[in-house]
Amino acid sequence: MWILDIILNKRLYAAKYTELNDPMEGIFKHRGLHRNILADLKSEKDELRICSFSKSCNDSLMWAHYADGERGIAIGIKEESLILKNGNYNIRNISYSGIPDVEENTTAREILSCKKVEWSYEQEVRVFTKAKYIEVEIEEIIMGSRILPEYKRILKKILKDKTEYNCEVKSLKNVLDR
Questions:
Q1: Per-domain boundaries in the chain
Q2: H or E, element range at 4
Q3: More confident site: 87 or 172
Q4: What is the mean pLDDT of residues 140-150?
Q5: Each residue of 48-67: pLDDT tens digit?
Q6: d(Cα 163, Cα 150) in Å, to the nearest integer?
Q7: pLDDT at position 166, please?
Q8: In this structure, what DSSP letter does residue 86 have?
Q9: What global pTM score does this model have?
Q10: Diameter of the chain measured on Cα atoms
């Protein structure tokens, strides 16, 4: 039912870093930082929420890992809808440079913007917020090649009935053929 929430409320869930799938998320190295600085970083990380996006919609690993083996969907959003709300959102590209070395002035966002090189196929962009959801405008919905036909029909009907939506519904095969 999460897809109905996304479509009807035009929002995406922003997770706490501990809810993300990388067990190394938020881990960092330091050389003897004072415990107050470490406590402040922990507190700052705990307050943040993250909504992750990918710059690519046609990577097979992404479809296997994040779209239930091509049974799911990918949601394309209008990038400018995030930029317009930039007062509430902090948008960052992920650096695939490994576990970060933290110094006294490093922020939690900087720590949470670093991942190991193994994750680079994701081409991830993160939106940081303190809210549970981020508002988005959906530009396209790409259905996986193995999506159940009844889900496909329902989704198309919902989008057709929501006249304020002007998003394109595509199949993964069409996207891969680009």
A1: 2-176
A2: helix 2-9
A3: 172
A4: 90
A5: 999 999 999 888 889 998 88
A6: 21
A7: 64
A8: T
A9: 0.87
A10: 59
What letter does residue 41 receive in the DSSP assignment? H
- Token pair for 51: 């909504």
- Give the angle subtended at the CA of 21 by the CAs of 59 and 130, to the nearest 5°: 105
Q: Among 2, 3, 8, which residue's Cα sits nearest to residue 164?
A: 8
Q: CA-CA distance, 113 to 165, in Å (whole number)?
A: 32
- pLDDT, one tens digit per residue, over 71-122 is 999 999 887 777 655 456 889 999 999 999 999 999 999 999 999 999 999 9
CA distance 28 to 100: 5
Task: Collect contacts of 26-30 with beta carbons under 8 A, ≥24 apart.
Answer: 26/108, 26/111, 26/112, 27/99, 28/99, 28/100, 28/101, 28/102, 28/106, 28/111, 28/114, 29/99, 29/100, 29/101, 29/102, 30/101, 30/102, 30/103
How far apart are alpha carbons 9 and 43 in whole angstroms?
30
- Amino acid identity for residue 110 in this structure: E
